[in-house]
Amino acid sequence: MPYIVALTGGIGSGKTTIANEFAKLGVPLVDADVISRQVVEPNTPALEAIRSHFGNKIISLDGTLNRGLLREIIFSNPDEKKWLNALLHPLIQQETQKQLNQANYPYVLWVVPLLIENNNSHLANRVLVVDVTPEEQIQRTIKRDNISLEQIRNILEAQASREKRLSYADDIITNYTKDTDIQDKVANLHKQYLTLAKIKT
Ligand code: ATP
User: Fold this and answer.
1) Residue 92 to residue 35: CA distance in whole angstroms
2) Tens digit of each residue's pLDDT (9 = 90 or more) over 143-195
3) Residue 170 and residue 7: Cα distance in Å, rounded?
4) How do residues 133-143 score in pLDDT, each as one tens digit?
5) Closest residue (by CA) to atom 21 of ligand 1?
6) Which ligand 1 atom is the nearest neighbour of the CA of 20?
7) Ligand 1 geometric centre to CA of 127 (Å)
8) Is-contact 18 130, C-beta < 8 A?
9) CA-176 nearest atom, ligand 1
């Protein structure tokens, strides 16, 4: 098992931007968002279980999961949310462990937006938090996703607070809009993680 660095941060903080800088240095990425889509791809047992439970309406015409409808259903129904989580959480954990184990490198960057919210920080050797101001998160997300101020405020409210997330950080990388030295910061962290991975193994 390689050394695991979890990269987390709130919506629009810049996780993808920063993860891409690590990838450019050759670091393998395991992406929690990708895994949560992979476990419900067409022809997976999980998608079939979801179809039997919610009916054919939950599958779009192209055979993929209708995520919007599913989100709507579980938003207003805690029991359905519980059912879905009980189905998906073990599959996501299993697939995550598999991909982390497959990484053929001293350390792996696990990009995991809801690390703190899901109480999963113990699964990583090190937690790297991307920090920005809530104002920047709002501006970037509205610009990127074309959503309303109210929607983004609701999402921010549902996520861990900036203070809580920072309290779990072993390392913090700031990604304020005025920052221009992201590559240097990533290069320094990369050096540090290679050293830490060597000490651990
Ligand atoms: P999410 O969790 O919502 O998927 P994220 O944390 O992965 O977001 P990114 O997708 O990397 O964040 O960045 C969000 C948006 O902000 C993107 O449009 C990106 O181009 C922009 N962005 C990232 N870093 C900066 C920066 N330092 N200054 C200005 N804009 C930035």
Assistant:
1) 6
2) 999 889 999 999 999 999 999 999 999 999 999 988 889 999 999 999 999 99
3) 11
4) 999 999 999 99
5) 140
6) 11
7) 19
8) yes
9) 27
Q: Which atom of ligand 1 is nearest to the CA of 13?
A: 6
Q: Tell how far the Cα of 130 is from the centroid of ligand 1, in angstroms.
A: 10
The closest residue, in CA terms, to atom 8 on ligand 1 is 12
What six digits make up the tokens of 187? 């290069």
Phi, psi of 47, rounded to the nearest 5 degrees:
-65, -35
Specify the ligand 1 atom closest to the Cα of 12. 8
* pLDDT for residue 97: 95
Pocket of ligand 1 (CB under 6 A): 9, 11-17, 113, 140, 144, 175, 177, 179
- Please tell me the predicted confidence (pLDDT) of residue 189: 98
Please give the pLDDT value at position 22: 98
| HSE-CB of 167 using CA atoms within 13 angstroms | 8
Terminal alpha carbon distance of the chain: 9
Q: At residue 201, does pLDDT exceed 80?
A: no
